[in-house]
Amino acid sequence: MGNSALKAHLETAQKTGVFQLTGKGLTEFPEDLQKLTSNLRTIDLSNNKIEVLPPLIGKFSFLKSLALNNNKLTALPEELCKLKKLETLHLNGNHLRQLPAVFGQLSALKTLSLSGNQLRTVPTQLCGLRHLDVVDLSKNQIQNVPDTVGELQAIELNLNQNQISQISVQISHCPRLKVLRLEENCLELSMLPQSILSDSQISLLAVEGNLFEIKKLRELEGYDKYMERFTATKKKFA
């Protein structure tokens, strides 16, 4: 892509606060964006070939939304975590194995999408994020859901298409969790904590495609309590 095209995009971005350059085969983060650190509210560089997110990302202190879906990122710089206004972060379809240790500093984060990466566990850093609404960790290599998950503040947690065979009973203690997606994992019915049904806030539990028949779920103690929450929520949205 020529410089003139990039220049035009930069000029537009300066006026709109939005820089979007997707599917252009970019191999690196455009350094010229530095000129717009105080203008930009949204950056979308999805569907490129970016391998490294440079430390300068930390300078975009007004950024609210960052999308880098379908790139070639293997790690994230700690500087990303300086973005105190960032509310939406989309990193689907990269090669991420873990998040920076200081990820919990992204205090405004509401939506986090990490579908299609190489995470092996639910990152404990997510538990420090107080405003998190939706977390998508589908299509990773997660095998178990640890005790720390009980502190997760999310309303929806998507763990579809992982390799999960164990879930901590602490998931029932998530204060705001309403939607839990666990489709296409490796769960035996005995490994699904019954307290999710009997003693949690969860009103939508999606568990199709595991190692048990759904009708067996209905025989578990607490299923009627879960159905009460499910029905009440459905009425609310109907």
From TrEMBL:
What the entry lists under InterPro entries is as follows: Leu-rich_rpt, Leu-rich_rpt_typical-subtyp, LRR_dom_sf, LRR_domain-containing
Pfam families to which the protein is assigned, alphabetical: LRR_8
Which species?
A: Tricholaema leucomelas
Q: What is this protein called?
A: Leucine-rich repeat-containing protein 57
Q: Does the keyword Transcription apply?
A: no
Tell me what gene encodes this: Lrrc57
GO cellular-component term (any): cytoplasm
Q: Which domain of life is it from?
A: Eukaryota
Gene3D superfamilies, from UniProt? Ribonuclease Inhibitor (3.80.10.10)
Q: Among its keywords, does the record have Repeat? A: yes
Q: Which UniProt keywords apply?
A: Leucine-rich repeat, Repeat
